[in-house]
Amino acid sequence: MADHYELPHFGGKLMSAQVSALLMKEIKQGIFANSEKLPSEVELAERLGVSRTVIRDALSDIEREGFIERVRGIGTVICRDIVNLTNRFDLKLEYNELIENSGYRPHSDSIRLRLEYADEKTAELLCVDEGSRLIVCEKRVLAGQTPCIYSIDYLPYELFGKVDYTDLDWSQPVFDLLDKYCGLIITTSISKVSATNADEFIRSKLNVQPKQALILLDEVGYCKLSRPVMRSLEFYTDFFDFTMLRKKF
Amino acid sequence: MADHYELPHFGGKLMSAQVSALLMKEIKQGIFANSEKLPSEVELAERLGVSRTVIRDALSDIEREGFIERVRGIGTVICRDIVNLTNRFDLKLEYNELIENSGYRPHSDSIRLRLEYADEKTAELLCVDEGSRLIVCEKRVLAGQTPCIYSIDYLPYELFGKVDYTDLDWSQPVFDLLDKYCGLIITTSISKVSATNADEFIRSKLNVQPKQALILLDEVGYCKLSRPVMRSLEFYTDFFDFTMLRKKF
DNA sequence: AAGTGGTCTAGACCACTTC
DNA sequence: AAGTGGTCTAGACCACTTG
User: Fold this and answer.
1) How far A73 CA lies from chain B's nearest CA (Å)?
2) Is B172 helix (H, G, I), strand (E, B) or coil?
3) How confident is the model at residue A2, as a pLDDT?
4) Is A188's pLDDT higher than 60?
5) Which CATH number fits domain A15-83: 3.40.640.10, 3.40.50.360, 3.30.420.40, 1.10.10.10?
6) How close, in Å, is residue B116 to chain A by CA atoms?
7) Boundaries of every domain in chain A
8) CA dihedral (B182, B184, B189, B195) positive or negative
9) Of the candidates A78, A91, B29, B209, which lies 20 to 30 Å from B157 by C-alpha distance?
10) B8 C-beta less than 7 Å away from strand C
């Protein structure tokens, strides 16, 4: 192990976040890439010149995502199998990120944009009145040349205020449009996973073989303060590994 | 809100865990059941007679599972939509728990027990030699009278030491057998989710309709210290809601 | 200005594992 | 006995939201 760590200075702000980013980098491809354990909390605190609390906060963040495990009397163990996972479905909310992480260029086509009136279920999920206007955006998403997702997004019309939604470029990720034009950032989603063979239209768009089933995600995306802003139905082919971590705390 | 909280004494141990359990109880069905927010950290600390650190540790645990959100300058907001979810697939590792939470009695039948020799992939996942012996247990799982899961478990033969695996009651949850006879508790699993139509044998066991697809979970269960102990293939019908939380931290 | 959560310090003791 | 992570205290200051 190296004798000294470099800790960038940002005016003393967010120190534990910097520490956890630094440690993750070293775990993935740095000086701890071949280690089974991290140095002790006291040692890390001394080397980085911060208090043990800062180290513990940083380690807690890393532990929450499953990359390390802390054992009393033993130390901080690196969970190499989990560090090595490339795409964690439970940590990424946006399929474009998943596609990019897999080494492909994400883009979309076959866009169909329309207004609909909220049915009972969607209205309840999005906390809007039944019958209120929804922007509906259907599209096909491709990784490079391979179609891999068909998605249908439902957004309350009122979110966009004075912006004319028909002027926007809906081939962009909806997350980006929400951010840019509504100032809304989706941080959480409740996802219901099921399996389906889907209808002929969607199957043909995705070029799936006769025997191949699809994963259907019925999601509601939330911003800060538990505010629901979007419902999505997403049909996934088997192009991706849908890997997730399940953990008892 | 009440003027006083009761905090049980257990010799001063694990105080933050007690606090988080207490708070979760009050959020779900107690004095915060109709609240949008929790009292401030300082107030909670005073009322419970502990330091603010203890409160913050407790709140961190609750936040990690998605039930609250902490916002600077505002307070600790309760995510009611998430509290109200009955079955969280990302927090439970064991289908028997999910079945019980849904209000059904879990049991299994059609048990087929055998020895196999590890293929390359399973050997790698379980960190055993290719060709080494595996106990394989196939069974059908029912919720009450309804078949809902077909599962195939692969366990290294060596785990059971001198215990003759054919003497055990494999209709019990495998988690319980591992605990009782091997002293192993599975705390984490890496799950690969896919959709499948499965073969005729499994479809007939699960009584699925011709058009119905199944969810397939390919899981590796880990004990403490990242030790892999079991691989499972589990075929799920649509009997359950497979709800999970996806979150950016 | 007041109140909230977020961060950080310095120090203490406990529980567990290993030697 | 020594070293590890887990818990807890008391106090301080910062960043953000609200009035």
Assistant:
1) 13
2) coil
3) 37
4) yes
5) 1.10.10.10
6) 25
7) 15-83, 95-236
8) positive
9) A78
10) no
- Gap from B138 CA to C15 C1', Å: 41
Residues of B in contact with A226 (CB under 8 A): 69, 77, 79-82
Q: Convert the pLDDT of each residue in B139-165 to its tens digit.
A: 999 999 999 999 999 999 999 888 899
Tell me, yes or no, if B89 comes closer than 8 A to chain A by beta carbon. Answer: yes
- Taking only the tens place, the pLDDT of each residue in A4-15 is 455 444 333 467
* pLDDT, mean of residues B79-97: 92
Nearest nt by C1' to A55 Cα:
C8
Nucleotide nearest to B74 (CA to C1'): C4
Query: Nearest-CA neighbor of B3 among B53, B29, B39, B27?
Result: B39
Nearest to A240 by CA among A173, A149, A107: A149
Contacts of A224 in chain B (CB under 8 A): 69, 71
Q: What's the token pair of residue A222?
A: 């939330």
Reading the block at residue A249, the tokens are: 């705390």
- Distance, CA of B72 to C1' of C2, in Å: 14
Please tell me the predicted confidence (pLDDT) of residue B162: 85
Q: Any CB–CB contact under 8 A between B103 and chain A?
A: no
Nucleotides in chain C with any atom closer than 7 Å to protein CB? 2-12, 14-18
Asked if A238 reaches chain B (Cβ–Cβ under 8 Å), the answer is yes
Give the relative orientation of helices A15-29 and A52-64 as an angle to the nearest 10 degrees: 60
Q: Which of residues 31-50 of A touch strand C (CB under 7 A)?
A: 50
Domain covering B95-236 assigned CATH 3.30.565.10 in the classification: no
Per-residue confidence (pLDDT) for residue B227, from 0 to 100: 87
Q: Which of A120, A141, A142 is nearest to A132 (CA)?
A: A120
Enter the DSSP assignment of A161: T
Q: Is the dihedral of CA B90, B94, B100, B105 positive or negative?
A: positive
- Average model confidence (pLDDT) for chain A? 90
Q: What is the pLDDT of residues A77-97, one digit of tens each?
A: 999 999 999 889 999 899 999
Closest CA to B92 of A109, A247, A241: A247
**Best of B89, B202, B226, B241 to mutate (most A CBs within 10 Å, chain A):** B226
What share of chain B has pLDDT > 70, as a percent?
Answer: 94
- Asked if pLDDT for residue B2 goes beyond 50, the answer is no
The token pair at A2 is: 């190296």
Distance from CA of B205 to the nearest CA of A (A): 18
What is the reported pLDDT for B13? Answer: 41
The pTM is what? 0.91
Running DSSP on this structure, what letter comes out for residue B151? E
